[in-house]
Specification:
GO terms for molecular function: chorismate mutase activity. The chain has 98 residues and is mainly alpha-helical. Helices cover 83% and strands 0% of the residues. The protein is built from 4 helices and no strands. The N and C termini lie far apart (56 Å). The mean pLDDT is 91.
Length: 98
């Protein structure tokens, strides 16, 4: 094998150049999706900050637990048990630990 064939397969764990090429392309797509997800999480954090600020300014509490339960249920219903963990992480990012 030449260095050009082994390098992509070594990087990807694939056993053929064709598989390595497919994996490399798929990883690039995953990286792009991750960038979009991070951007959406940052946007969610900003919107959540506005909500918390207004809720507190109006005399309310920083956290609305019934709303958080709705968010947890949405993620659980869509993604199963791991969805609950993901939603908890998002909630913590958006409002901090309670």
């Amino acid at each position: 094998m030449t260095a050009t064939t082994t390098q992509p397969t070594e990087r990807t764990g694939a056993r053929t150049a064709e598989a390595a090429e497919l994996i490399t392309g798929a990883r690039e797509r995953i990286d792009a999706l991750d960038d979009r997800i991070i951007g959406l999480v940052q946007e969610r954090m900003a919107v959540s900050a506005v909500i918390q600020k207004e809720r507190i300014a109006s005399g309310g509490r920083r956290v609305n637990l019934s709303r958080e339960m709705e968010v947890l249920a949405t993620y659980r219903d869509a993604l199963g048990k791991p969805g609950t963990a993901l939603a908890m992480t998002l909630l913590e990012l958006c409002r901090g630990r309670i």
